[in-house]
Model the fold of this input.
Amino acid sequence: MSRPAPDPSNVPSFLIKQVARELSRLTETQLRPLGLGMASLPVLEAVRQGKATTQAELARLLRVEQPSMAQTLARLERDLLIRRSPDPQRPRAQRMELTALALQRLPQAREILNEGNTRMLGGFSVDETMRLTSFLQRLSANLDRTG
Done:
């Protein structure tokens, strides 16, 4: 006897997408006055932390397609949040660096993200938050392996 298919609105993938969409909507609204968005924050943080400095490195690190990364970088450059310069080791590549404006706005953006996380995790204990984070990391790793 086969089991009935689960209610699609009660499966983890649907619930994760629903929570992510709502959190993104709320956060985007608060980031907009800073001239930032959810797509640009990981890029700016990766550059700030020195994890990646070229378009190809950023696309690989953040798991996005090159055209999407190119659009994000063009927007960040237009908004004076990054500056491009030739990469001395790779003639065809350009290195990204943050501008003073980006460095000024990033702490505010991180605070907005922190407030969103605090709101989302209201009523969760520290242990529950740590377990949820661990579960989400495992889900991500599972998806990485199945590619």
